[in-house]
Amino acid sequence: GVEGDTSTFSRRTTASVAYKPFETVYVFISAETIASPDLTRDLQNYGFNWSPFPDGSLQVSVAYNESLTSDDGKIRTFVPSMRWNINSRTFLDLSTQFVRSESGSQASELVISSGALRTVF
After folding, report:
1. Using alpha carbons only, what angle is made at residue 95 by residues 22 and 33, rounded to the nearest 5 degrees?
2. pTM of the prediction?
């Protein structure tokens, strides 16, 4: 018997830019498209990091990600976070992740918060 072509392919196109306008500010933007025969997915990522003190002991970050698919699916994620390096052996991490997922007539939201205080003895 003759078997049909079972090969698959996908194509990925990515563009990104990182910019540090000041010593304490970092900005990141990227866009990506992943295409396959069944589905196309567009991804957008935005990031911002700010260290208000020159020694970097406090870092504030915000990230936003968006994923859109050719079947009208959409996932959006927003993540603000903070890291405080209390001293060379102790730090505090705090973050919250907000996720909204939509597909057709269905939607869901998820909120995840976390915190960690770590020290080395």
Report:
1. 70
2. 0.80
